[in-house]
Specification:
Bound molecules: tryptophanyl-5'AMP
CATH class of the largest domain: Alpha Beta
Order of helices and strands: EHEHHEHHHHEHEHHHHH
Largest sheet: 3 strands, parallel
Strand order of the largest sheet: 1-2-3
Structural class: mainly alpha
CATH superfamily of the largest domain: HUPs
Distance between the termini: 47 Å
Strand content: 5-15%
């Protein structure tokens, strides 16, 4: 009789994070969260983190932040993050993240950080602070702390992950051990970039001052209807997919495809003979139908704070245990023991 080795998961160790902005928007969902849920079935170790430390690069009201952390955890659970399959936790409760960020920051060249697109854009929009510049180092720490192999994210985070790979390589060379930190690979879905409904040349974002620019998972049917009706398109009525020349229509095609599981080409075929107005009406119905069970689940979970807090506590304990072992190794290699 022969024994075969246990099959290795396709994605050995998954980690991803989301800022505590309260309720996620459709971009967060289609770009990341939906993949998070699917990947739970395909990995040996899965960690999903509400990255509250990252959110501090802009001033936060304490009670608002506290509520937003819980609301984000609730939303993730409502979307299908399953605490029996993944470790769901709050970043600041595992202090190794900040400690490792310091250790990594002592070797990360400033030039690497100054090249980051997000730094270049945000430093002109808000007051510069050290945390904004070193933000990707904390992100690298999040990922490397768990020896992560794969990171499901929207396309806007890919550059930060490239930096995390460079930091991993820097330390691997310094430690003379090519496999100390695995190089984390991004996993980006076909609909990895959802654009603003008001300005479809920029991404859908929580920081956009216009509420009309994004659909949040708890928006009511009427609000969804209004936002899609007012979505910026163009004067051509035919439905085509060309994000460069027709960003507004292409964004709606992509949202429809993302929610129905259709490719963009299939969506175009589906809408042959229909105009933008008819398409907006179909997209509206589809978004409402998709989001209504999530909205209901969010409402239910909001009534069960105890369950949510206990789930986060359980996740924190599990994450801390993995992090402690890895961090002790890092301290050892650096000579801090
Ligand atoms: P955050 O909180 O801005 O967004 C969370 C996830 O949602 C994706 N996303 C989008 N995807 C498609 N279209 C959009 N319009 C859109 N907006 C947001 C993001 O790509 C992300 O996957 N720095 C990260 C959080 C983070 C992290 C990490 C991620 C901290 N540490 C470690 C991965 C691994 C951020 O601010 O994401």
């Amino acid at each position: 009789m022969s024994f075969s080795a246990p099959a290795r998961a396709l994605y050995p160790r998954i980690f991803s994070g989301i800022q505590p902005t309260g309720i996620p928007h459709l971009g967060n969902y289609l770009g990341a969260i939906r993949n998070w849920v699917a990947l739970q079935e395909k990995a040996d170790q899965v960690l999903y983190c509400v990255v509250d430390l990252h959110s501090l690069t802009v001033p936060q009201d304490a009670s608002r932040l506290r509520a937003n952390i819980r609301d984000m955890a609730i939303s993730l659970l409502a979307c299908g993050v399953n605490p029996d399959k993944s470790i769901l936790f709050q970043q600041s409760k595992v202090s190794y993240h900040a400690e490792l960020a310091w250790l990594l920051s002592c070797r990360t060249p400033l030039g690497w950080l100054r090249r980051m697109t997000q730094w270049k854009t945000k430093k002109n929009q808000q007051s510069e602070c050290l945390g904004l510049l070193s933000y990707p180092v904390l992100m690298a720490a999040d990922v490397l702390l768990y020896k992560t192999t794969h990171v499901p994210v929207g396309s806007d985070q890919v550059q930060h992950l490239e930096l995390a790979r460079d930091v991993a390589n820097l330390f691997n060379s310094a430690f003379d051990d090519n496999s100390f930190f695995p190089e984390p690979e991004p996993i980006v879905g076909e609909h990895g970039r959802v654009m603003s409904l008001r300005d479809p040349t920029s991404k859908m974002s929580k920081s956009d001052p216009s509420d009309l620019s994004r659909i949040e998972l708890t928006d009511t049917d009427d609000v969804i209807r209004k936002k899609i009706r007012k979505a910026v398109t163009d004067s051509t009525s035919e439905i085509t997919y060309d994000p460069l020349t027709r960003p507004g229509v292409s964004n709606l095609v992509s949202i429809y495809g993302g929610l129905t599981g259709m490719s963009n080409d299939d969506v175009i075929r589906h809408f042959v003979g229909k105009d933008t107005e008819a398409m907006k009406s179909d997209v509206t119905d589809c978004v409402i139908e998709y989001l209504s069970p999530l909205r209901k689940r969010i409402r239910e979970l909001r009534l069960d704070e105890k369950y949510v807090d206990e789930t986060l506590d359980r996740g924190c304990k599990a994450a801390r245990e993995i992090a402690r072992e890895n961090f002790d190794n890092i301290r050892n290699v650096l000579g801090l023991t």
